[in-house]
């Protein structure tokens, strides 16, 4: 039989007439604890979806690249492979080339980065988190945000419920019951953790609403038109929120995977999808002799198309909203050298 010294026994004082309140305290305590541990478990052990097979280079393709000493030639081979496989790649390196991982031997999908700790490429890598000993990326970013949220709620709950005893501690200094020091430590520890988690949680909520990863907030992804921090934004906070938390409201706050997409294809603003595809500029360069290149006016007009404008590259039709509230539309027909036609 275990006998504790009297000074270490925590005395629980239940106020008369408040048993229901005590039950409520216990239920809420275990609810927040359970949700926190569930989200934490999912963040640690949640698996990252692998990079799809089409992004991997075959041994022959790797050999071709490694046999070339000049980076320019290597880039040409990578462009050829990307074009043949029609890979959905829109971002590029700072030098304008295709992003390639020499360790995994893959053409990196957009938002994918190689983690030197995990020693693999992670889809939509956010950062490597030592607190969960795992990368935070497309597969577990929702779990990570919920982990922060429930950690914050748990700390606040503990701080609020111990606050009356903390005040009582300072009002009755004569009573040196050891249990009072436990309450004091519990209150201060929960407040300190709550403050630090609040900062991190607010930062990731902001990033979620603008559809940025931590890496992208420090180093903007490069598109054909240059660096663009908001290149992957859906254009609205709610759209960006749904990208991570899904469309089913009942699942938003459960640590279950509901993120949209596949981690490889990213909805981008119309201008990017039509004028910013990585290989589009290569098509211009590959025009056969005598074939007319799109005029500068046409290219400039395409670039000037704002988000929300729909452009059909196959028919050269552009649908521009005139008054969003009335639903009126004007349809423009793009032709090399001039713009004509309205309906
Ligand atoms: Zn890699
Ligand atoms: Zn990692």
TrEMBL record:
It comes from the Eukaryota. It is found in: Membrane. It comes from Stichopus japonicus (Sea cucumber). Residues 99-219 form the Palmitoyltransferase DHHC domain. Residues 296-317 have a biased composition (Polar residues). The DHHC domain is required for palmitoyltransferase activity. Belongs to the DHHC palmitoyltransferase family. This is Palmitoyltransferase. The chain crosses the membrane at residues 20-41, 143-167, 179-201. GO terms for cellular component: membrane. It is a multi-pass membrane protein. GO terms for molecular function: protein-cysteine S-palmitoyltransferase activity. Residues 274-318 are annotated as: Disordered. InterPro entries: Palmitoyltrfase_DHHC, PFA4/ZDH16/20/ERF2-like.
């Amino acid at each position: 039989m275990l006998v504790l010294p009297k000074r270490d026994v925590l005395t629980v004082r239940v106020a008369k007439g408040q048993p229901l309140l005590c039950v409520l305290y216990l239920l809420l305590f275990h609810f927040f604890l359970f949700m926190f541990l569930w989200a934490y478990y999912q963040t640690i052990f949640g698996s990252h979806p692998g990079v799809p097979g089409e992004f991997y280079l075959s041994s022959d393709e790797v050999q071709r690249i490694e046999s070339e000493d000049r980076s320019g030639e290597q880039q040409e081979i990578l462009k050829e492979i990307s074009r043949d496989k029609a890979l959905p790649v829109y971002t590029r390196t700072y030098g304008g080339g295709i992003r390639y991982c020499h360790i995994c031997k893959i053409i990196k999908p957009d938002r994918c980065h190689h983690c030197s700790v995990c020693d693999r490429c992670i889809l939509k890598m956010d950062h490597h988190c030592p607190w969960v000993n795992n990368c935070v990326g497309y597969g577990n970013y929702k779990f990570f945000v919920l982990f922060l949220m429930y950690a914050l709620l748990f700390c606040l709950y503990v701080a609020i419920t111990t606050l009356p005893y903390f005040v009582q501690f300072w009002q009755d200094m004569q009573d040196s019951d050891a249990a009072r020091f436990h309450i004091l430590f519990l209150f201060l520890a929960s407040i300190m953790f709550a403050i630090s988690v609040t900062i991190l949680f607010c930062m990731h909520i902001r990033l979620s609403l603008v559809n940025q990863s931590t890496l992208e907030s420090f180093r903007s992804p490069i598109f054909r038109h240059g660096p663009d921090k908001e290149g992957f934004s859906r254009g609205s906070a709610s759209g960006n929120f749904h990208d991570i938390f899904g469309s089913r409201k009942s699942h938003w706050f459960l640590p279950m995977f509901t993120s949209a997409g596949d981690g490889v294809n990213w909805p981008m603003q119309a201008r990017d999808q039509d004028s910013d595809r990585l290989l589009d500029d290569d098509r211009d360069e590959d025009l056969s002799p005598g074939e007319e290149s799109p005029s500068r006016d046409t290219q400039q007009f395409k670039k000037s198309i704002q988000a929300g404008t729909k452009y059909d590259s196959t028919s050269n039709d552009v649908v521009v909203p005139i008054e969003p509230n009335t639903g009126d539309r004007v349809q423009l027909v793009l032709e090399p050298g001039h713009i004509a036609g309205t309906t």
